[in-house]
Design goal:
The complex is a heterodimer of chains A (about 270) and B (about 325). Chain A is mostly helical and about 270 residues long. Chain A has twelve helices and two strands. Chain A has two domains: about 1-145 and about 230-255, no CATH class; about 150-220, no CATH class. The two termini of chain B are about 50 Å apart. Chain B has two domains: about 5-255, Arp2/3 complex 21 kDa subunit ARPC3 (Orthogonal Bundle), CATH 1.10.1760; about 305-335. Classes of the chains: A mainly alpha (about 270), B mainly alpha (about 325).
Chain lengths: ~270, ~325
């Protein structure tokens, strides 16, 4: 049940972040979506030993988090899922890749350790980029941007419908789980002999809800497609945002910016 | 099984996105061909349903642990392969956007690993098992075999995609030996839950189950034929196993490949040299830590103390600039 609670809380949290009045929320969704994609591609394209290059990509999430006033705690919580998966894959690297690539004093650092840290950084930065997109852009606006890049209408409609009904069904699942837990105290999860009826009842109610939804949508003129979604206009600030960040991200990807900045002070 | 962006290279991510987009395009065409406007809200609700049920834990008998539903096979048995596949894409997209469960670049991989096998291979198994009518035994066989097999396919693909991306130092067989048994257990649990739900539906509302034999649109020649599907699968396996791995090893990423095509080098030496020369002239006047660097600073890491100092300076300047920007913005808003 804690899982459902936290899922509902996270959805509300992202919704409220995206509907704030901030510098980033004022920019059209399409430039933000494109910048996010460019950033993710550039981050993951670094060589697995290029720790310095990957580290320099911190610039984008760092600037946006401060400028858009997103709390660090909120963002760190998003990392728990991805860090688990990434660490599980990366943890083997120090054991299999033992070639020494550099030393710090008397401590030798192997390629496996470097590639593991690089992988973790890549995971953190790409998740942050995704979170910064959804925390500054309502899902309807993201779907509008998807339409602008010609993602099929049926698919966009589907995302909007799933998004709209997710909380309703999560709450229903929460109520059912809570009712079950109250009748079976101290039991972990749902017992196997009621799996079918538990989910089955929920499924039947969902199908009935889909029927009611379809009828109400038909009464409002639905003919298989949403027609009211007008694409968001991209203002000068949106174009500026796209150009500025694209240049910065590509520069960080191509040039060793950190090393160049350091060379000014260190010979 | 959700793959994060960090686990895929741009080449693998793009290839899988193209493969997933092709399957999605065909599915959209098939769903449109069915011309059932009721289907869209049904798919939306079912997507939300799968999402919600994934949050409910089910006790696994005799283990003390719990598992959850993935949904691909269940959606196929209720909506058919095409609508089920599109619904799973919707679920994966929302998971990726809202919960950072799977990355944007890795979305194609995740669609392929979890939705494609679950819905299309699952549909073949469901169709074969229920050919002579739907009974509890056939539902059990289809759901168990379908869930176990499609999860094994998915786990195999995750291994291939991760290795082709050059992410892990684990040998292929070792990685596979870790991935497959874990997903065998997960598939078995999912199969049990899916069986229980489908048997309940068969008792309560059997008309909700997908029956391709009863639908002429899905049984006419050429529609989801096994030969065609396996042909496409085989071709894509060859592309992924051969083409992408070669591309990944010879050209680690598309950007470096483009740079090599443009400049003849993957490092943009000329550009770097000119910038370095300018930096060097400024450096002689500003260096406050001369002749100080880590041992083997020209190693594969390509870093030195200058990189660390530079990083700290860049980040420090950025922090100052951002906080100053925020301060003046608030000040202006206050007026």
């Amino acid at each position: 049940m804690g899982k459902i609670d936290s899922a509902i809380r996270e959805i509300h949290q992202v919704d409220s972040l995206a509907s704030r009045d901030s510098l980033l929320t004022g920019i059209a969704a399409l430039p933000k979506l494109l910048v996010t994609l460019i950033y993710i591609v550039c981050v993951v394209s670094f060589n697995k030993y290029d720790l310095q290059g990957v580290a320099s990509m911190i610039v984008y999430p760092l600037v946006l988090m401060i400028v858009d006033e997103i709390a660090l705690g909120q963002t760190l919580r998003r990392l728990r899922v991805v860090l688990l998966v990434v660490c599980a894959v990366g943890i083997a690297n120090p054991f299999f890749d033992r070639q020494i690539v550099f030393t710090i004093g008397s401590v030798a650092v192997s390629g496996g350790v470097v590639s593991m840290i690089t992988l973790i950084l890549k995971g953190v930065f790409t998740v942050l980029a995704g979170f910064l997109l959804v925390s500054s852009t309502p899902i309807e606006a993201i779907c509008g941007a998807l339409r602008q890049i010609h993602v099929p209408k049926i698919f966009v409609t589907l995302i909007l419908l799933i998004n709209r009904y997710i909380v309703v069904l999560l709450q229903e699942g929460h109520r059912m789980s809570q009712a079950y837990a109250l009748r079976a105290p101290g039991q972990k999860g749902i017992e196997w002999h009621v799996w079918g009826s538990f989910i089955g009842q929920m499924l039947l109610r969902s199908m009935d809800r889909a029927q009611v939804l379809y009828e109400s949508m038909t009464l409002r003129g639905f003919n298989g497609e949403y027609t009211g979604d007008t694409p968001e206009k991209i203002s000068g600030s949106g174009v500026g945002y796209l150009i500025l960040w694209s240049v910065v991200i590509l520069a960080l990807r191509i040039f060793p910016v950190f090393a160049l900045a350091g060379q000014v002070f260190v010979k | 099984m959700h793959m994060a962006d960090a686990l895929v290279s741009p080449a693998v991510g793009a290839t899988m996105a193209v493969a997933a987009a092709a399957a999605a395009g065909y599915s959209i065409y098939k769903v449109k061909q069915e011309d059932d406007p009721k289907k869209i809200p049904e798919m939306g609700i079912m997507g939300a349903f799968v999402f919600a049920t994934q949050m409910i834990n089910f006790t696994i008998p005799g283990t003390g642990s719990s598992g959850h539903l993935c949904g691909g096979m269940l959606l196929t048995a209720l909506l058919g392969p095409y609508a089920g596949f599109l619904t799973m894409i919707g679920v994966l997209s929302v998971q990726c956007l809202f919960f950072a469960d799977g990355g944007l670049l890795a979305l194609g991989c995740n669609i392929w690993n979890m939705a494609f096998y679950g819905c299309f291979i699952g549909a073949l198994i469901w169709r074969f098992a229920t050919k002579k009518g739907v009974t509890k035994g056939r539902i059990t066989a289809a759901a168990m075999i379908g869930c176990v097999l499609t999860l094994q396919f998915g786990a195999f693909s995750v291994t291939l995609e991760t290795l082709a991306s050059g992410i892990t130092a684990l040998p292929f067989t070792t990685f596979l030996a870790v991935m497959l048994p874990i997903h065998l257990a997960i598939g078995f649990v999912e199969g049990l839950i899916t069986t229980a739900v489908l048997c309940f539906i068969e008792d309560a509302r059997p008309e909700l189950l997908w029956c391709p034999e009863g639908n002429p649109a899905l049984t006419s020649p050429g529609k989801l034929s096994r030969k065609k599907t396996f042909g496409v699968l085989a071709a894509l396996c060859v592309v992924i196993a051969g083409g992408v791995s070669l591309l990944a090893s010879a050209n680690p990423d598309g950007l470096e490949w483009s740079m090599a095509r443009l400049t003849g080098s993957t490092e943009l030496e000329a550009a770097q040299n000119s910038v370095s020369a300018t930096a060097e002239s400024i450096q002689s006047a500003t260096a406050f830590l001369p002749d100080y660097a880590f041992k083997q600073s020209d190693s594969v890491l390509g870093t030195s103390v200058s990189g660390i100092v530079g990083g700290l300076i860049v980040v420090g300047v950025l922090l100052l600039a951002c906080y100053a920007f925020r301060f003046f913005r608030h000040k202006r808003a206050g007026h």
